[in-house]
Design a protein that fits this description.
Blueprint: E1 12-15, E2 17-18, E3 29-35, E4 39-47, E5 67-73, E6 80-86, E7 92-100, E8 103-107, E9 116-122, E10 125-133, E11 145-154, E12 162-165, E13 181-184
Antiparallel strand pairs: 1-3, 2-12, 3-4, 4-10, 5-6, 5-11, 6-7, 7-8, 9-10, 11-12, 11-13
């Protein structure tokens, strides 16, 4: 995963907050974002004394365990967007989502061609890295402003789940495109 080696110290850093309140979460998450000519690069650094996951097959319901998530709306239309999830075992969900009158249509048959992910343990938690090719998103380029959100589901033992996000939706769901933040490419 050569594209993710080095250079992270100069990238944009974001910190997640509790999704329903906007307050500081119990378990912190730092997200670093950068890009190269052909791909968006994202690194999650997750505080977690006991990271865990059991699912190992692509497109399983990772949101039922511990996971980091990315929502990208490169066209800014708020009607369709891409979602990526990675758990501590490096299992992936990649899905194309379209809003319809009755809710959301999730296309799990879509696979992000060329997606590269990696995970690992840290002394204080776990890390997840993603390399998302622009071509796989409809040949989007890193120019202008995209709507995006970076999220995490933490499920500590014997405690309620904690949802955290860069741009809180102030609901129990991350699927609120109107609340996605603005990612500016310069």
């Amino acid at each position: 995963m050569d594209a993710l080696r080095g250079g992270w110290s100069d990238t944009t850093r974001l910190y997640l907050c509790e999704n329903s309140s906007g307050q500081r979460p119990q378990w912190g998450t730092e997200v670093r974002i950068g890009w190269e000519e052909k791909a968006l690069l994202i690194l999650f650094l997750c505080q977690d004394p006991k990271p865990w996951a059991t699912m190992t097959e692509r497109d399983q319901p990772l949101w039922e365990e511990e996971v980091v998530e990315i929502f990208l709306d490169p066209f800014g239309d708020r009607t369709c967007y891409f979602e990526f999830e990675v758990n501590p075992l490096n299992t992936v969900v990649d899905v194309f989502i379209r809003r319809i009158r009755s809710g959301l249509r999730k296309d799990f048959s879509w696979d992000c061609d060329g997606l590269v992910t990696a995970t690992g343990r840290l002394p204080y938690g776990w890390v997840a890295a993603l390399q998302i090719p622009f071509l796989a998103l409809g040949d989007c380029q890193p120019v202008g402003t995209w709507r995006a959100n970076f999220c995490r589901i933490e499920r500590p033992e014997n405690q309620p789940r904690e949802l955290s996000s860069w741009s809180p939706s102030y609901t129990g769901s991350f699927h609120v495109p109107e609340r996605f933040g603005l990612l500016h490419f310069e």
